[in-house]
Amino acid sequence: MKDISRRNFLKYAGLMGASAGALGLAGCDGGTEGGGEGGGSGENIKIGVSIWSSTDALGSLSKAILDKAAGILGVELSYVDQGHVSEQVTASIETLCAAGCQGIIVCNSADSEMQACISTCDQNQVYLAQFYRIINEENSPEVYATAQNSQYYVGAVHEDEVGNGEKLIELLTMDNPDAFEGIQKGARNICLEGWTVGDATFQQRWTGYQNGVKAWNDAHPDDQVTMTDPVYANTSSSEGAKVTQQFVNNYPDMDALIVAGGGGDPLVGSIGQLANMGLTGTIRVASTDFLEDLKEQLETGGMYAESGGHFCDPLYALLLVYNAIRQKEGFVPEQGDFGKDIQFPYVFVSSVAEYENYEKYFVEDDPYNDEEIAELAELSFDDLNAAATSLSIEDVMERHGA
Question: What are the phi and psi torsion angles at 351 (to 5°)?
């Protein structure tokens, strides 16, 4: 199985957008359309996509892979951008149900939104899966129970966010002779930039950051690390720049900045603000949104470390819903079960050499071709889950005989 090419998916997205316009697909009010005619068995299947943005760095890549898969499977897609605003998230599900979608995939913001989202889908007999998100059973037991009691909540595709946070702190605090010269020494004064208050994924990453700081401090009582409480930049570049300026002004000993996420735009704003202030290469910047110019940023010290997925969460969420709509055995929800859980491994890059491995095996290689996506759609859940979890750099390098 080949690996994902971000560049080729983005190119394909442009082609698919033009094709969708030519085909005149009908969509939801306030949304955009994707997908098209293909060789799959998705005739008359319409799936909605509730996403924070279909146009920012991560959102456009998510849309690209979804449009490609929809074209291959012959599924019609309808998009609603909801900006991770709770009222808009829940309203988007109502909009997509009213538009005749048989299934919906959603990247929600907070767990609390999912109670209304699931209830709406239950009432309309519409299958629902999350991508880049999962309901936290410990923090949101009532919402989790709602999912368990639903016959239409299919499941979730996400990453190990707590482990991701712990690993980023480990990378930030350790010395790294392979990093840019000005940021080779481990950080001790970390500032934290979040994106939305109460966001479920951010809360899990924050837990990981806190765990990582505690682990370091427990092991190094005479060499302590501090981390600020989060300051939120939402999902805009300008707010990322503003928050970064605020950190520099308020914390003169700051030697690291975590931009926790937000689709990529806050990170762009933060890096740009540090450059404007002449601080590029003096502060370790870490994030969980891959940049298109990551290699250059690593070379110049604009970035120290990034973690990211391989951006197939929405593809696999689409396949979960697609197979539930088709009533394929093993995918149709049963009342009392939470639903399917696919957890992707994260990819970590903290040097130019590591990025070059990522670039070789994830960027320059071809994306899933038509046959491979069609094959994924026909796998059992166990085999689909295995395919999802074998996409780390190390696994791919081993598969390529590197």
Answer: -160, 165
